[in-house]
Every structure is written in structure tokens, then in C-alpha cells.
Amino acid sequence: MSTLDGSASVDDLQPFNDDWMNKYHGKSQIVVKPKTTQEVSEILKYCNDQGLAVVPQGGNTGLVGGSNPVYDEIILNLGNMAAIRSFDEVSGILQCDAGAILENVDNYLAEKGFIFPLDLGAKGSCQIGGNVATNAGGLRLLRYGSLHGTVLGLEVVLPDGTIYDSMGGLRKDNTGFDLKQLFIGSEGTIGIITGVSILAPKRPTAMNVAVFSLSSYEDVQKVFNETKAGLGEILSAFEFFDKQAYELVKKHMKEGGEAERKVFETEGEFYVLVETGGSNNDHDEEKLQNLLEKLMENELIQDGVLAQDQTQFHSLWKLRELIPESAGKAGSVYKYDLSVPVPKMYSLVEKMRERLSEAGLWKEGGGGRIREVVGYGHIGDGNLHINICADKYDDEIEKVIEPYVYEIVAEERGSISAEHGLGVMKAPYIGYSKSPTSIELMKQVKKMFDPKGILNPYKYVVV
Amino acid sequence: MRPSTPSLINILVPVKRAIDYAVKIRIAKDGKGVDTTVKHSMNPFDEIAVEEAIRLREKDKGSVTSITAITIGPAKSVETLRTALAMGADAGIHIVCPEQPVGLANPEPINVARAIKAVIDRSAGDKSKAIDLVIMGKQAIDDDSGSTGGMLAGLLGWGQGQFASKLQVEKEGKVTVTREIDGGLEIVEGKLPMVVTTDLRLNEPRYASLPNIMKAKKKKVESLKPEDLGLDFTPRMEVLSVSEPPKRVGGGKVESVDELVAKLKEAGVLS
Fold this sequence. Notes:
The complex is a heterodimer of chains A (463) and B (271).
Chain A (H helix, E strand, L loop, with lengths): L9 H8 L13 E2 L4 H14 L3 E4 L16 E4 L6 E5 L4 E5 L4 H10 L16 H6 L7 H4 L2 H4 E7 L5 E3 L14 H4 L8 E8 L6 E9 L2 H15 L3 E8 H13 L14 E9 L2 H17 L5 E4 L3 H12 L1 H8 L1 E8 L5 H14 L11 E9 L4 E8 L4 H7 L2 H8 L24 H14 L14
Chain B lengths: L8 E6 L2 E3 L20 E3 L1 H16 L4 E10 L3 H11 L3 E6 L12 H16 L8 E5 L10 H9 L2 E11 L4 E8 L2 E8 L2 E5 L9 E2 H9 L2 E4 L32 H10 L5
Parallel strand pairs in B: 1-4, 1-6, 4-5, 5-12, 6-10, 7-10
Antiparallel strand pairs in B: 2-3, 7-8, 8-9
Helix pairs in contact in B: 2-5, 3-4
């Protein structure tokens, strides 16, 4: 669709031009939604020949503006390529189109007793191709590892229209460079992923979830160690969130008209969600009960709840999954996604609060331009999310936060982007996490695949 | 005067282990029941019943002497009792019967009602233990019979307030039950002893907290065989077959009104 031939209005194109947080606004006049890999190839070949810039777009659920045009680049949306191509129940290898929605694919696998090795809050909208292109991490990375390990093969259209096909991926294959790895996490800058071949593990038949309230971040770490030791191979997620995040979720649920339901007798400074997945519920429950007893005896947790049925399982997960959405309701959100050693994780949130408070932007208990600063994330992966809810996006606030946030991460030798990617937001700051040599090599890779620079320009590694 | 519960009542809450509400039901291979190798939890209406009993006690401390949960089912039903105990019930009674495929209600509602009556009769002699109020789910979500509550009240000769969306137990044992009926609310009154069945909107059950789960392990569960109470669970009905509803066929798009009319005629909707 396009405004050029009158087939679409500016409003029609808005959902493609804007991101879901309403932070990034492109001015593209053309959206193309190809149905086949061949069509993608022809489109890219044409654009490459004519020197037209293209932004690949999946579910447009990214957080760093990677899937929206910066100016008027042509949007190539993969939504019309959503088929599951094949599934082999013996090996667990799934092949699907890039535009297949994560939740649909996972439901398809669930029917067959398998699970998609990735799960994240945006599962209802995000697409597999986008997940792979951004190397999404998500909630179950602790258990199933990153996409660099689970993706077996890809079908990618290169900027000149060439189709790179390694869909017949093998689990073991040491013949030359493992080229598909370059595309995983390349954020659409060197090729457009059109097909994914991935290894799906067996779905755990017995799942449990418990949420604890704790009094300090010290205890969060101790509980993490005890949990790893006590649960072993059945531990499938270990998430934490702070009191401020929990309050936002409670407020959001209340405003959404949900019946108020007291979860904890004793609320805490921090909360931890532990999920187990195994094949024998009696075995899992015994382990879990022993762990819970130990945690309570040692007074590492103040209180906690254990889901008694499937409905409670989902409502307890919601306490964690609703944080980004609840933060969005509280204001315009500056989102940071950082990788730092676990012991240092929460100090970054505290440093950020201190800085915003000194700048007169944030006050404990509310009242400043910054309404709240919340910390949460995947302890298991050393991945911290800081969400800063402001009254609106503006330069004054941004200057206080950035590059300060990247400086404190660099001090801990962490990563300024654990899983969200660089996109347009963090492209200028890559130097805080990567050496000049690495950056130079990345530029050479980009130039080799995309000499004319037509794919997702102004982002990622800017040449 | 503020309504208050009468002093010292004993509440009995029947709970059932049923296939989890969120699980997709599949027909068993023999076609006479459903696949029961899936996750089970407490019947949601029974969870509401347990919650309501606990709330009655919390509303007026000292008003409720005891809350006893009872279940009739296979060995694993004891897990369901533990959930009730973790929520706040004081003790449990488990009438153990062999596991059988779920087709028709099994044990049948009349036998369940008789079993609950037998337990109530057993304690009737001792005034400090006699059951004054039974709060139970209006139906179990596995067989959807919805008849045990009424049968129990009939067998006992007690009053009944079915499908409660609000429950008040006042001084002198007056019970007020609000029921959701078509187009409005109906309020009925009765006197203890009574059987009350719960509807969905009565309350939102609490989570089982870890301290309470630990405490629940130490609470007493009495295990009985049907014979101990002079009961016989032999079913009176036989399940012949269980089948899935016909698969829904997807719709299609038509280009014009004429085509639509033609299609409707073809389908026999228009002549």
C-alpha cells in the first residue's frame, strides 16, 4: 500500500511508521507486504538497483526503533508470510515463515507436545523472523539458551536479491563459517530473514510457579543460589522485580477493572518469580517443597505464593509480564536493557534514581517529572531492565539519563543492550560495550553484504 | 445492630479434584470417558466455597469453630484437600475410592450426597462438632451434574440456598443468600443448618501462601473407606460413549449479493 498511488492515506500507514510506544515516528509513504520469498527477493533487487532504502518490519514490537523508518524508507512488512512450513515430531525441528506470530507457533507446537524455545511478553504480536533478527532473549533463555544455539538454519534475502538458504540445518555441521549466526541479531541490516528452522524441545508436562516477597537485593541473590542448587534441571525461569514495579502492576490491574486480589500477606522490597518445568509433577513438587521450606526456615523470603492451578499459574506470571505495559500506562517510558554481573545489577537502578533526584526530576513517592523508576529482569541471565516513566519524552530528560546510564554500565564492563538490540536508539552508544576493533569488523561485514547501504540505514552499526 | 454471625458454627466444605479448568479436554482412547492423564486442580466452584468459609471466619473472629474440607475420590484427591487446608481449612476428610475414568459423574451425585450426609450424621451427636453449614460448589466442572447440593439438602431435610452470589450468616442463625437469576437478583432467607452452593461471582479465591502451605502439611486428614460409613459407590448408570462436538467448518467470502443468495439456497437456508 502506498500514499503515492492513492491506495492508502497517511493514517493507514501510521501503524507501520510509528512504534508501539509512540516514541519513534517514520514518514514512509510505502509499505510492501510480500507473500513469498521470491517477492521479497524481487523487491530488494529493485530497491538495490534504484538505490532505495528499505526497513524490514516484523510485529513492530521492538523497543529501540529498529523496525520503523527514520525518514521515508520503504517498509517491508513480513506479516503476510506467516505459514508453518513443516514440523518433524522425531527431531523437533520446526520450519516456518518469518512472519509467523510467536504465540501461534507455540500453540501449534503445544498441540504436538513441544514448546518454542523462546517466550516473551509480546508473544501475541511479535514474529519469529523479528525474534531471530533481533536475537530476542525473553523469559526462558535460562532454560533453553539463546537463539544462537536453537536456530538451525535460515532463509535470508540479501540486499541484491540473492536468496541465502540454509533451512536444511543440521545440529552438527562443521563445514566452513557458520554464516546463519551473522544474521541472528543483525537487526535487518545485512539481509531480510524470510524463513526460520529451529529446534523445539519437548514441552514440560509438569509446570509450577511460585512468587516470593523479599526484603533486600542481597536476599534475591541468595535465593537465586539456593534455587539453582535445590531445583537443578527443572528450573525454567528466575525473574525479579522491585516494589515500585509491583505497585505499577497493581495500579494498572485495578484500573483495568480486575477484581483486587491480595497476593501477599507481607509485601517486600523485591519480588522473585520461580518457574519449574519437568516431566514428573511428584518429583518437581517434592523438590520445590523442600526448597520452599529451606527458604522460609532461613528467612530468606518474607512471604510467597504457589500456584495451585493453571489459572493461578497464569495470574502469577501476569505480575511479571504486565510490568512493561503497566509502565507504559504510567507515562512515556525510557527503557534500558542492560547486562551486568548479577551482584551489581540493582545498584544501577539506585544510581539512576539518585541522578534523577539530584537533577530535580524524581522524588521518592512521586511528584517529579519522572513518575517512577522501576527495575526488573532476568536474574538468571544477569539481565536488568530499567524503566523510567516520564510525563513525556523530551531532550532535557534524555540528556540527564543518556549517556550516563551507558557510562555506569561500561564501568561494570556490562552490555548496554542485553536483548533489545541497538536499533536507532542505541546505535550511537555501541562504543560503550564494544571495542574499536570489533566495531571496525562489523562495519566491514555490513559493507560486504550491503555495499549500497539500502537495508535499515542509520541504525545498528552506522557505516 | 450490625449483623454478626452466631457463635460457634461448624462448616463443612466438600471439594472435588477435577481436570484443571485451563486444560483442553480430550476424549479417552476407549471412547467412554476423557483423558485423565492431564493436570488436575480443585474444582473452581469449590475453591470459591473454601474461600467463603474462610471469609465468614475472618469477618467475625471466633464465630466459626471449625472449617472441615471433605473430598470423595481417588488417592490423589488428597492434594485437593491439601490445597483447601493451605487456603485456611482446619482439617480434612478423605473418603477414598478407586480412580475411574471420567465419563458420567463418578461417584454419582447421589452417592456423593449420601457420603457427605453420613459424615454429617456421624458428628451430629456431639454438639461441639455438629455441622451447621455446608458450603459447596454449585457444580463440578468435569461432569457438570450440578445436583449434589440439592440432593444433600433433601437427604438431610435442611434448607438450601443455591447459586449464591452473596452470603450472609447473621445472629440467631439467620442465613441470607443472594442469587443471580435471569434479569436480576433473588434474595432468599433460611435458618441454620443449611446447604449453600456457590456461584462464580461470590468471591475471588485467595492464593495459597507459602507459610500456610507449610502449616497445611501438619493439619489432620482423616482417611476413610466407603465401607467405614456403610456406603456403596456402585454406579447405577453406565457410560455408553463420549464424543466430541462436530468440528466447526470455516466460512468463506463471496464477491456479490447474487453469489451470497445462491450459496444460501445451496445450503438450504433460502428456498
